[in-house]
Amino acid sequence: MSTHMKSERRQLSTAEERREMVLRTAIGAFAARGYFGTTTTEVGKAAGISQAYVYRLFPNKEVLFTAVVEHCFVRVRAALEVGAAKAESSTPEAVLASMGDAYAHLISDNDLMLVQLHAQAAAVSEPAVREAVRAGYARTVEYVRSASGGDDQQVQQFFATGMLCHLLVSIDAESVSAPWTRTLTAGITHY
Asked: Looking at residue 191, what is its pLDDT?
């Protein structure tokens, strides 16, 4: 292998490593202020690189944010896979419960959950974000259906509970002792 090829391969690896580092950093930036409130300058500063380098890795904020959304869905899928593998039995109920527990652990990292919420809000008016969110949910729903063996109603309930978890965490419902919060938090586990 020529020195040039080794050099080129290392540069690609370094660029890919930087890209992954920027994605991980951007999760925190977008979690704090959302798609509309976050600038690429802030992402670059948080990652310790220039805005120009951010643009070298991602041509614009929309591409960066959709990459962050996709990265979050990859993390969700990985957590669900771990949950499915840990299920106490192969019944749909057991697999879904174990996947739900794995997801609850995952979103205890509020940044990931907040990016999901911001992505859903941005999807209303940003077509590229909408497509990224749709594609992520399409893959995730089909994975949950396949891994659990659950029927449409069970899979829908799984996702509805996940959305309720997002709401409860985002409004810190557990810190409010009232009939309405007890109703919404009953049976919901948070970590």
From this structure: 79
- Are the CB atoms for 131 and 69 separated by under 8 Å? no
* CA dihedral of 122, 160, 97, 30, whole degrees rounded to 10: 10
Rounded Cα distance between 135 and 12, Å, is: 27
69-91: b (≥16 Cβ within 10 Å) or e: bbbbbeebbebbebbbeebeeee
DSSP string, 82-142: HHHHH-SSSSHHHHHHHHHHHHHHHTTSHHHHHHHHHHHHHHTT-HHHHHHHHHHHHHHHH
Cβ neighbors of 6 (< 8 A, separation 6 or more) are none
What pLDDT score does 11 carry? 53
Contacts of 62 (CB under 8 A, 6+ apart): 126, 128, 129
> 3-class DSSP state for residue 89?
coil
The span from the CA of 189 to the CA of 161, in Å, is: 10
CA triple 96-172-129, angle to 5 deg: 65
Measuring CA to CA, how many Å separate 25 from each of 17, 76, 112, 116? 12, 17, 11, 15
How high is the mean pLDDT in each 10-residue block of the chain (191 residues)? 49 75 93 95 92 93 97 97 98 98 90 95 97 98 98 98 91 93 90 79
CA 16 to chain centre: 20
State residue 170's pLDDT score. Answer: 87
